[in-house]
Design a protein that fits this description.
By secondary structure, this protein is α+β, with helices and mostly antiparallel strands. The chain contains ten helices and twelve strands. The protein has a domain of about 150 residues: Histidine kinase-like ATPase, C-terminal domain (Heat Shock Protein 90, 2-Layer Sandwich). The two termini are about 25 Å apart.
Length: about 425
């Protein structure tokens, strides 16, 4: 039980932090990408605003400009423009390309940034494909482009986004590495946290189980003494109402102690297991209950798939079946009890169902709690202590299976899944 709790804690911690980390890193990556694209478009817009077909930009004061970007000093006055962009350093280091077309589609000018990375032919080809798209801005491969109509010619301006793309890929790979390392660290930390959280619960559970076991063994002696003394009194003074009450309550106490000891033993996992035919075992356990059902005016309809083998303790599994069938006989309101055993993937699925009063979600959630009894069950018989379904759950857990209850179509359905022999 606590191993499952630990796994749930580890999963919850790792999943929550991993989801937060993924969202954070993705936000950082997208923000960086959007910011770089926005910056590139702003620089490209500035380039377009400064572009002049008649007067191509030239370096100021003989400065070598291999990138082909226009200088922000006027060719005539050498004075800086008032609309100097905020990202001037990045602007000066960026590579811009342009192709100007006449209205008839003739190429008027090609600017390849004075470098050998892009030939005029490749730029013309790229610009032609951009014009065919009919869009004024966007991306074409690694190029971010802007198209502007300028009266007697059309300008296609481009900026190379290869460096930005490579930086983004490098950032993405770094985030993956950091994410993997962080996930591994979080996994180790979550295991440590889960152990620290569950340790007090484990110790408390062990003390509780030890108390139940010790108390059960200690109570066996006074119960035996009371029974013996009651028998002696009967021989001396004969049977009477008071002795009958003592015997009745003593038997109830004895039954309760037996159930507590069974529950304690099952919780500890002290169950020798063997390979058994669960189908045959189920058949054998149903037979005596058919007689009990007949005496109560009911019948059991069973559908059992044969040849289902599993590793288990036969006595515990018989008790599991007995508890579910007895529960259906005691609390069912109809005259039919159904039992189904079939193979479901790699498990044996046992279902016991009967007509019943509606069970609320709260009742279903607590049916397997120890000493829990619904009001109807409490009023019907004093022989039930609210431990039967707890024992059934302990048996299912001890065999690596699970048990759950649900209410559908006016029926209470108890389902047990047990792993089949591999």
């Amino acid at each position: 039980m606590f191993d499952k709790t630990k796994r749930k804690i580890v999963f919850t911690v790792v999943f929550s932090l991993l989801a937060l980390m993924i969202v954070t890193l993705t936000t950082i990556w997208l923000s960086n990408r959007i910011a770089l694209d926005r910056e590139s478009r702003e620089m490209l817009k500035t380039f377009v605003e400064r572009f002049s077909l008649e007067e191509q930009p030239v370096p100021a004061k003989g400065e070598i400009r291999p990138d082909g970007a226009p200088d922000f000093k006027s060719e005539n006055t050498g004075e800086p423009h008032d609309d100097r962009p905020k990202n001037e350093p990045a602007f000066r280091l960026s590579t811009f390309y342009s192709v100007a077309y006449s209205k008839s589609g003739e190429v008027l000018a090609v600017n390849n940034g004075n470098n050998d990375f892009q030939s005029e032919e490749s730029l013309i080809k790229t610009a032609s494909s951009i014009l065919k798209k009919g869009k004024t801005s966007g991306k074409a491969g690694n190029m971010i482009y802007l198209v502007e109509e300028r009266g007697d010619y059309t300008l296609v301006a481009m900026i190379d986004g290869t460096i930005n793309r490579n930086n983004q890929m490098r950032l993405f790979r770094q985030m993956l590495v950091i994410g993997a390392i962080a996930t591994a660290v979080l996994f180790v930390i979550s295991i440590f946290i889960a152990r620290r959280i569950v340790r007090p619960l484990e110790e408390s559970d062990k003390r509780q189980k030890r108390f139940v076991s010790d108390a059960g063994h200690e109570l066996k002696t006074p119960i035996a003494v009371i029974s013996a003394n009651s028998e002696l009194l009967k021989r001396q003074i004969g049977n009477n109402e008071w002795l009958s009450n003592i015997d009745y309550e003593n038997e109830r106490m004895s039954d309760l102690v037996k159930q507590l000891l069974i529950l304690s033993k099952t919780d500890r996992g002290d169950l020798p297991k063997e390979t058994l035919d669960f189908s045959k075992l189920t058949d054998g356990e149903v037979l005596p209950f058919e007689t009990l059902a007949f005496e109560k005016g009911k019948r059991i309809e069973s559908e059992i798939e044969q040849g289902l083998f599993l590793e288990g303790n036969p006595n515990s599994l018989r008790q599991l079946l007995s508890i579910l069938l007895d529960n259906a006989l005691s609390h069912g309101i109809g005259d039919t009890i159904g039992l189904s055993l079939k193979k479901e993937r790699h498990s044996a699925m046992l279902s016991v169902f009967n007509d019943a009063e509606e069970l609320s979600a709260d009742q279903l959630a607590h049916l397997f709690d120890r000493f829990y009894r619904a009001d109807e069950a409490r009023a019907e018989s004093a022989a039930h202590y609210g431990l039967g379904l707890s024992i059934a759950k302990a048996v299912a857990d001890a065999h690596g299976g699970e048990i759950y209850a649900e209410y559908k179509g006016g029926k209470a359905i108890f389902t047990v899944t047990l792993p089949l022999r591999k």
